[in-house]
Amino acid sequence: xxxxxxxxxxxxxxxxxxxxxxxxxxxxxxxxxxxxxxxxxxxxxxxxxxxxxxxxxxxxxxxxxxxxxxxxxxxxxxxxxxxxxxxxxxxxxxxxxxxxxxxxxxxxxxxxxxxxxxxxxxxxxxxxxxxxxxxxxxxxxxxxxxxxxxxxxxxxxxxxxxxxxxxxxxxxxxxxxxxxxxxxxxxxxxxxxxxxxxxxxxxxxxxx
Amino acid sequence: xxxxxxxxxxxxxxxxxxxxxxxxxxxxxxxxxxxxxxxxxxxxxxxxxxxxxxxxxxxxxxxxxxxxxxxxxxxxxxxxxxxxxxxxxxxxxxxxxxxxxxxxxxxxxxxxxxxxxxxxxxxxxxxxxxxxxxxxxxxxxxxxxxxxxxxxxxxxxxxxxxxxxxxxxxxxxxxxxxxxxxxxxxxxxxxxxxxxxxxxxxxxxxxx
DNA sequence: CCCCATATTGAACCAAAGTACAATTTACAC
DNA sequence: GTGTAAATTGTACTTTGGTTCAATATGGGG
Lengths: 208, 208
Hints:
The structure is a homodimer.
Chain A: E1 7-11, H1 15-27, E2 31-35, H2 38-43, E3 51-56, H3 64-73, E4 80-84, H4 89-97, E5 102-105, H5 110-141, H6 146-155, H7 161-168, H8 172-185, H9 191-199
Parallel strand pairs in A: 1-2, 1-3, 3-4, 4-5
Helix pairs in contact in A: 6-8, 7-8
Chain A binds a DNA duplex through helix 6 and helix 8.
């Protein structure tokens, strides 16, 4: 498992800005990819490794704010640092409410941007770890049969086998059978682990 | 259990602003308390029910931003809506990074403020529910003896009694005794519940 | 019609959890 | 020293969890 190098995406319509920022960010040791518009950025297929986005607010076509909204809607979680020459407070507040990491009015100090990028990359790493783990669990969940899933939802409430059996109108023996399969398929060895992993992907425990 | 009425705290050094805002907010059905400075607000003892804070950025003495920082440091979680006549983008961004709900430059529409207040109160309710539950759990945790706490940290890993016994160099019988006390003191009936509640207040499971 | 995944159940058995009686020791406060 | 909370352990017992043999039924898909 080689450690992937963080990538910083830069979206700005002014090529001079793109070049200057690219030079700055590269000098700090990041990989960089630049785009002249939001549409261009969207066409690129998602990056697997940790990455963040330095985004101009004002862009021809899709604006920076609109791009942010689109990314949020499509559940594409890449931390965003806004830069702008003609921003105002309501705009910056809206951007931050939507989860932006930072919002820098031009002209800004290069160091400021790099600090923001580091924070953004750290956030990206955290997000990625969560998503990876979550994806793993959901992959395992899909191998469960409908009935097993049902039993799982009861099992994580801490209910006894006989109680679950009563709820599902089946015998305790059957519940045991399902539980055995569940534990194996979910690759856990205790109910405690089962509770923990199911919490990570929003499984609703059955109601007592 | 009577439902407590939300309170909106208003901190502004200009009495005309305080009066105008108070009238506006009261007309929307909230209780209001006004303060002329951050120090004044801090002296008031904490409100039990849901509340939020409408805070002027520029204040004599303790500034709004400083007050926010102080509240964050002291872990006093009251959602803040900033208002300001002379703010800039970096200021608004810093405020939002520190958890502000909104940041409104004057002049603003009264409706805007009321919308923000509603969001802030909703947030306060959520926070309060969490804190209440968390406080309950921590109260129960304090009744555990040091040894019981230790056993708890192992138990929520899903480890068998005999395995825990081995780790702690005691007999399985002793572990059972501790577990019994733990379950009673924590007012739960299953390991599943134990795992869930301990997750809510950051108990670190012992390392396998 | 047969295969297969799914769901269900049985008997017997062992391991683990938990409880009802306990008793003993240790350390610390008064 | 005495009292108290905490920690530890024992024996015997019941309940629950889980596995190893299974077998049976059901409902498509080929």
